[in-house]
Amino acid sequence: MRIDYRIEHPVALHASFEVAGFTVLLGASGEGKTLLLSAIAGLIAARGEPFDGLPPQQRAVGYLPQGHALFPHLRAWENVAFSLRGARRREQAMQWLERVGMAGLAERWPASLSGGQQQRVALARALARRPSLLLLDEPTSALDPVTRDEVLAELIAEVHQAGIPALAVSHDPALAAVADRLVLMHGRRIVQIGTPEAVHAQPASGAVARLLGLRNVQRGRIVGAPGAQRLSWPEADASLRVETALPDGTAVDWHVPPAAVRLHDPAAAPGDAIAASFELRQTSPHRNYLGMRCGKARLWVEPPAGYELPAAPMLSLPPDAIRCWPVEEHA
Ligand SMILES: Nc1ncnc2c1ncn2[C@@H]1O[C@H](COP(=O)(O)OP(=O)(O)OP(=O)(O)O)[C@@H](O)[C@H]1O
Fold first, then answer.
1. Ranges for the ABC transporter domain (predicted)?
2. Cβ proximity of 208 and 186 under 8 Å
3. Residues 35 and 99 reside in one and the same domain
4. Which residue from 8, 9, 34, 141 has its CB within 8 A of the most atoms of ligand 1, so it is best to mutate?
5. What stretches of 17-82 show up as alpha helix (H) in DSSP?
6. What is the ipTM of this complex?
7. Ligand 1, atom 18, residue with closest C-alpha
8. What is the pLDDT, as a whole number, of residue 309?
9. Is residue 164 in some structural domain?
10. Which domain holds residue 231?
11. Quick check: CB of 137 below 6 Å from ligand 1?
């Protein structure tokens, strides 16, 4: 389904993109993601397709606002039945609750349900309207990481099974990772669209790289003519070797993958290595990162297994591992 909406107030925003399967619109706080969903749902004044000019109740959207917004004075099943009409509304509501694994808690009040359970009831309520488009505002924000992954897996399975295109807006890179399609918003416009694989392989800008949650996105400037270029990194008072076609003086966002950063003992460090000090360790089941302070900046390093950090480590960055993007005007 093609979305094309233009908002003038309270901020100017234009978004045009295709929603297919589980589509995630990723954007920083304040970009206008909630406004866009409200516009599509008909809750604020805006022009656009689909649903242009229709009052909210006539728009075939299932909208899950932030915090789920269940009616507190209605039981779980009554929340789901809210938009249903006819003698079978209770039965139908129960069928939707069954689908999201909540039939056993149908008589509960929203306040007695966990965040994940409320989310499922809200999803059942949105689906019960038989929408042609599902809108989800920050669907993972109220959930702890374990619940988040479970609820998300169910949500996506449900979206795929129901065959309803879903647009989720978020600034959570974890949500972006499970999308069928990613839409990146920066500076109140769409800056990149693609599968998570394609976007991760080629982020269009430093802003996109930050939105994807990449570690080690820094600011700098290209200095020198092609062939003899350096990357000036003021925060660390460093000048790095770099391979780029960008001209002398270009302000850049740049990125180096943590696994590409080399750690050295000072006695064996290359001439242009940067002095660093250990700040923190971040360990997860599959990854082990060291946060290293370099002047005013922190660089994340992913050392080889069993690596013993020297007392005064030095860091070097292979030029071919550094990716540079010109800084955008509005960045
Ligand atoms: N009713 C309003 N009056 C004035 N400004 C508003 C109003 N609602 C939103 N804004 C402004 O519009 C911009 C976009 O807001 P919006 O809530 O859509 O951002 P968002 O991308 O959803 O952010 P977040 O991720 O923090 O929820 C923000 O700068 C916000 O301050």
1. 1-212
2. yes
3. yes
4. 34
5. 33-41, 76-81
6. 0.91
7. 32
8. 86
9. yes
10. 217-326
11. no
Question: What does the pLDDT read at residue 331?
Answer: 45
Cα–Cα distances (Å) from 111 to 50, 70, 129, 147, 152, in that order, read 35, 9, 23, 18, 21
Six-digit token pair at 68? 């789920």
329, two tokens: 């005007």
Q: Is the CB of 172 under 6 A from ligand 1?
A: no
Packed helices 145-162 and 115-128: angle between N→C axes, nearest 10 degrees? 10
Q: Is 129's C-beta closer than 6 angstroms to any atom of ligand 1?
A: no
Q: How close is the Cα of 182 to the center of ligand 1, in Å?
A: 21
CB 13 within 8 A of CB 30: no
Residue 331 resides in a domain: no
Bridge partners of residue 219, in order along the sequence: 253
For ligand 1, is residue 125 a contact (CB within 6 Å)? Answer: no
Q: What is the CA angle 128-132-134, rounded to 5?
A: 70
What proportions of the chain, in percent to the nearest 5, are helix, strand and coil? 30, 30, 40
Amino acid (1-letter code) at residue 197: E
Residue 3 near residue 19, CB atoms below 8 Å: yes
Q: Which atom of ligand 1 is nearest to the CA of 32?
A: 18
Q: How many domains does the chain have?
A: 2
Pick from 11, 37, 137, 167 the residue to mutate for probing ligand 1's pocket: most ligand atoms within 8 Å of its CB: 11
| 281 within 8 A of 248, measured Cβ to Cβ | no
How large is the C-alpha radius of gyration of the chain? 24
Rounded to the nearest angstrom, the distance between the alpha carbon of 35 and the centre of ligand 1 is 6
pLDDT value, residue 329: 63
Do residues 189 and 242 share a domain?
A: no
Cα of 112 to ligand 1 centre, how many Å?
A: 30
- Report mean pLDDT in 10-residue bins for the chain, 331 residues: 94 93 94 94 93 91 84 95 90 91 93 87 87 89 74 82 91 88 94 95 95 96 90 95 92 96 92 92 87 96 88 93 86 45
Tokens of 217: 């996105």
